[in-house]
Design a protein that fits this description.
Elements lengths: L5 H37 L6 H51 L1
Length: 100
């Protein structure tokens, strides 16, 4: 009695071959799509994470410097306005004493 049919054997071999071929085609398609995506994204001038973080730190440092300079300027302007008010007060006092 024959347990294996030649036709079924050939069919199973063909299906196994087709499955292997389809798996290979799938891997090739995935690799091709990945390469095309890298080319597409690479041509769009995106920055890397490291570059972004470096610029972010530079911006934070510049913001801190600007805040410090603004505080210094405000202090200088406050001192200048105090000097002006003292000078105008002394002029007013001087004029009042001269007119008497």
């Amino acid at each position: 009695m024959q347990t294996q049919n030649k036709l079924i054997d050939d069919f199973v071999k063909m299906v196994n071959s087709a499955a292997g071929t389809l798996a290979g085609v799938g891997r090739e398609a995935e690799s091709s799509l990945r390469d095309k995506a890298k080319d597409f994204v690479g041509g769009m001038d995106f920055v890397s994470r490291e570059e972004f973080e470096a610029v972010k730190e530079m911006a934070a440092a510049a913001r801190d410097d600007a805040d410090a300079l603004k505080a210094r300027l405000d202090a200088l302007e406050a001192g200048k306005s105090t000097s002006k008010s003292k000078a105008s007060a002394s002029k007013t006092t001087k004029k009042s004493s001269d007119s008497n």
